[in-house]
Amino acid sequence: MLSSDVPKPDIISSRIDEEMRSLNKTKIQIASEKIGCKPLLALAFAVVLNIWAFWTLDITYLVIWISASLYFYLFYPMLPIFLFPLRYFTKKPSEPKVSINKNDLINWARDLKIFKNKRIGFRLFMRFFILSLLPLTIGMICIYLMSVFFSLYLGNTGVIPADTSALILVQCIGIILFYIEIFFFRHHLFNFAEYVRRQKSLEWKKLIVLSILGFIFLIVGTIVVFLLLIAILLPGFTLSSFMNVAEFVRVRTDVWIFIILISQFIIMQFLQSVLSLRISLKMCNDLIFRLNDSKKYLNPGKYLDPTKCGSEDLKNDFQQIKVPLRALKETELYAFNRRQMFGLFPTYSIGVNISNLFNIKTLNELKEVFISDD
Question: Which ranges does the record mark as transmembrane (predicted)?
């Protein structure tokens, strides 16, 4: 149930219009993003550098690429987490900055009742965790697909031991499958609560089929967790094992590994930029559509007071007004953050709107967003 303090429909409509204006402004900004000459030259340099390294180093290049890719995974996926505090403390004076009092923060965290509402908290975390990883998917798949091919070649030709090749394959394939799962199942993960709501209006025969599908999604989710463990826990061990058997390389590879690592960073930034712009633009369009569509449930001619819902009409009106409130509350959680590392490619991440998050008194307020009605 919503709070008993339900605003008037015209107030809700005004808030929706304001949110839509903000989203349209963000949409225009994203759509107008252009990749300049400097980033494109950096990308061309990275590609040419890899071609030259392959031409010069021959088979040694394959070893260096794999080594660099393993180092790459140790730091790149964690960059958003490390950069978040930096972004907060380096905001321009013109940018809004949330003032956080230590005692207020502790009281706010206690009042959220995280353990009591752990399902909501978990789904909130997973939604933004997956959103933060989505722009990385194409780049990660490309980089580690190459590592898979190189590892197969090195293992089959006897350049590296078969067990080391197998360990690299498990690591790289685990990473690839993990990001493939995120990319192709993102719609089910984002719209799970709405997905469950829709099933309640279907016939019981369809519910049997949907239960089977739900079981399949559960199995898939278990596999995703397993792949996540592989992707997070193995890189350091794999790298250590691989570097021990890579001592056959006669030329000094330390500098080359660093150079190829930088080139992978540039290539990844380009692919992440392209995908993040598309994802953010689609997200803006989806949120605008949902907000605009939810306005049809508003009836400006009535003031809805749930404490006075004695008639079926008023009860139905109160149930209907929950739709725009739900859409509004969900939209207000999102923040579109622009980054441009080292002046290269503009990337957008979809994170939590800190200001609006601190306005939430308890996680139960987000039940309508993340948990279907019982």
Answer: 35-55, 61-84, 128-154, 166-186, 207-235, 255-275
Find, among 84, 91, 86, 186, the residue nearest to 136 by Cα.
186
Our CA angle for 357, 358, 359, nearest 5°, is 90
CA distance 355 to 23: 16
Euclidean distance between CA atoms 231 and 69, whole angstroms: 13
pTM for the whole structure? 0.73
Residue 321 lies inside a defined structural domain of this protein: yes
Number of separate domains in the chain:
1
What is the C-alpha to C-alpha distance for residues 131 and 332, in angstroms, rounded to an integer? 16
Q: What residues make up the domain containing 77?
A: 9-370
Query: Measured between alpha carbons, how far is 33 from 343 in angstroms, rounded to an integer?
Result: 13
Cα dist from 158 to 131, 161, 263, whole Å: 41, 6, 27
- For residue 11 the two structure tokens come to 């107030």
| pLDDT tens-place values along the chain, 374 residues long | 344 456 677 788 888 899 999 999 999 999 999 888 999 999 999 999 999 999 988 888 998 898 888 888 877 876 666 665 555 555 555 455 555 555 555 555 565 666 666 677 777 777 787 788 889 999 999 999 999 999 899 889 887 778 778 878 887 888 888 888 777 766 654 554 444 444 444 444 444 454 455 445 445 444 544 444 445 445 555 555 555 545 444 444 568 888 999 999 999 999 999 999 999 998 899 889 888 888 887 764 444 444 544 445 445 555 677 778 888 888 888 889 898 888 889 999 888 887 777 767 666 666 666 655 44
73 contacts: CB under 8 Å, gap ≥ 6? 144, 175, 231, 235
Question: Is 284 within a domain?
Answer: yes
Q: What is the DSSP letter of 185?
A: S
Evaluate whether residue 307 is within a structural domain. yes
Q: Is residue 3 part of a domain?
A: no
What is the maximum span of the chain, computed from C-alpha positions, in angstroms?
85
Radius of gyration over alpha carbons of the chain, in Å? 25
* Helix (H) or strand (E) run with residue 349 in it: strand 347-352
Integer Cα distance of 113 and 273 in angstroms = 37
Q: What CA dihedral angle connects 119, 122, 123 and 126, to 10 degrees?
A: -160
Nearest C-alpha neighbor of 6 from the set 313, 315, 290 = 315
